[in-house]
Amino acid sequence: MRIFTDEIINAICFNAAERRGLRPNDVEVQLSYDEEYGITAEMWVAGRSQYLIESNLLEAIEQYLYTHYNRRVFRSDIQLGIDEEAEQFWAEFPG
Question: Are 44 and 27 in contact (CB under 8 A)?
Fold first, then answer.
């Protein structure tokens, strides 16, 4: 099973909002790919920027799948990737 760019961004927004006591709409996220670091994200909250590495993204996706789909997927079972032709990021997990 896979989720794509929009849901990955939603996962990060929900995770950051929950941690900071904000609304998900208060968080902005842009995904990117870097050859050295892999898939990363830049997140803006209240005008401040923060960079997230793959482990942060996996944590957010793990929590999102549990709270929004009632699916217990461990981050070690989640694989991140990018479809360069479609300009889409994806997260793949069992099920």
Answer: yes
Give, in degrees to the nearest 5, the angle at Cα 57 between 55 and 61. 115
Residue extents of the structural domains in the chain = 2-92
CB 80 within 8 A of CB 57: yes
Q: What is the spatial distance between Cα 64 and Cα 44, in angstroms, rounded to a whole number?
A: 19
| Percentage helix, strand, coil for the chain under 3-state DSSP, each rounded to 5 | 40, 35, 25
Place of tokens 């994806």: 90
90, 81 contact by CB (below 8 A): yes
pTM of the model: 0.94
The pLDDT value recorded for residue 82 is: 96
Residue with tokens 């005008």: 47
